[in-house]
């Protein structure tokens, strides 16, 4: 799991603004009733727009998990929403993969000067939001069509959603104003353990992590990609690329009040993610039955409950 920040301070090409124009297609998908025709599988609800693009549910269970994960990221940053040195009177902000919209809403309250747009495949954001915050149903892997460029583009926990990171970085670069910032708060596999003698053959959690990477790769998702973002960001033109890696302990084994709180959040997040993140990949891609998957996940949960001496963690 990795956290990255990149900023861009070079002038963009003269033809950049021509890609913005007045095209409304990317800005009107939220008005289409079909985006609410959710798909249901194995008792979970999934997005309808760009159907099956993202193999993770969007139901109430997942919404609660995303909000909990938000607090974990915020705790990691000592209560902050971002690390980029943006100015206080920032004007245009884009939150890609906004999920429940919690980051965009809190950013809007913190920066009333900003017009904040949150995009996502799922219309699961609240209706009552700050006046400077809005949401669009959009696929970030398709062409970006906005009326203006942005001072700040933010995204978080999109490792299972984006297949072509170089394309994503290129579009972000093209849609940033000169001197703008891109910040990626990402999660990277595999899961880790302080006891390096444990392997996927002896630890259910480490086996689950390896299987997740394997299944994701079969649909074109590289779950290990975030740790290698730096080179790809520079290739598309970003400068002053900064990388900061944090460690999330899973469980309350780490020392210190902050680490213990973070470990509690990370553990709860993982327990919900085991089902949300595995259901589509293990049954659809690996060909497992629902029963086999649930039995295996119970072994993973049991490991955390009965082997507290196994100090698992992830990179964020």
TrEMBL record:
<dbReference type="GO" id="GO:0032259">
    <property type="term" value="P:methylation"/>
</dbReference>
<protein>
    <submittedName>
        <fullName>S-adenosyl-L-methionine-dependent methyltransferase</fullName>
    </submittedName>
</protein>
<keyword id="KW-0808">Transferase</keyword>
<keyword id="KW-0489">Methyltransferase</keyword>
<feature type="region of interest" description="Disordered">
    <location>
        <begin position="1"/>
        <end position="28"/>
    </location>
</feature>
<dbReference type="Pfam" id="PF13489">
    <property type="entry name" value="Methyltransf_23"/>
</dbReference>
<dbReference type="GO" id="GO:0008168">
    <property type="term" value="F:methyltransferase activity"/>
</dbReference>
<dbReference type="InterPro" id="IPR029063">
    <property type="entry name" value="SAM-dependent_MTases_sf"/>
</dbReference>
């Amino acid at each position: 799991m990795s956290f990255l920040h990149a900023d861009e301070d070079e002038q963009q090409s003269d033809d950049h603004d021509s890609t913005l124009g007045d095209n409304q297609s990317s800005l009107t998908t939220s008005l289409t009733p079909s985006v609410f025709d959710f798909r249901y599988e194995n008792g979970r609800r999934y997005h309808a727009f760009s159907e099956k693009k993202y193999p993770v549910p969007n139901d109430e269970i997942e919404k609660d998990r995303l909000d909990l994960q938000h607090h974990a990221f915020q705790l990691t940053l000592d209560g902050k929403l971002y690390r980029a040195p943006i100015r206080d009177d920032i004007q245009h902000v884009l939150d890609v993969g906004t999920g429940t919209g919690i980051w965009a809403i809190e950013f809007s309250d913190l920066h009333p000067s900003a017009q904040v747009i949150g995009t996502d495949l799922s219309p699961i954001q609240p209706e009552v939001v700050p006046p400077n915050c809005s949401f669009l149903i959009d696929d970030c892997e398709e062409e970006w069509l906005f009326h203006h460029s942005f001072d700040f583009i933010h995204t978080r926990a999109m490792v299972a959603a984006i297949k072509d990171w170089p394309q994503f970085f290129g579009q972000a670069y093209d849609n940033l104003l000169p001197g703008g910032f891109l910040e990626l708060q990402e999660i990277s596999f595999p899961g880790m353990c302080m006891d390096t003698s444990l392997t996927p053959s002896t630890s259910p959690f480490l086996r689950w992590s390896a299987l997740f990477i394997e299944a994701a790769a079969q649909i074109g998702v590289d779950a290990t990609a975030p740790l290698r973002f730096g080179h790809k960001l520079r290739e598309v033109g970003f400068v002053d690329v900064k990388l900061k890696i944090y460690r999330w302990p899973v469980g309350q084994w780490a020392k210190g009040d902050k680490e213990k709180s973070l470990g509690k959040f990370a553990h709860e997040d993982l327990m919900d993610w085991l089902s949300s993140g595995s259901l589509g990949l293990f049954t659809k891609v690996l060909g497992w039955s629902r029963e086999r998957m649930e039995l295996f996940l119970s072994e993973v949960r049991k490991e955390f409950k009965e082997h507290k001496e196994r100090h698992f963690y992830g990179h964020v």
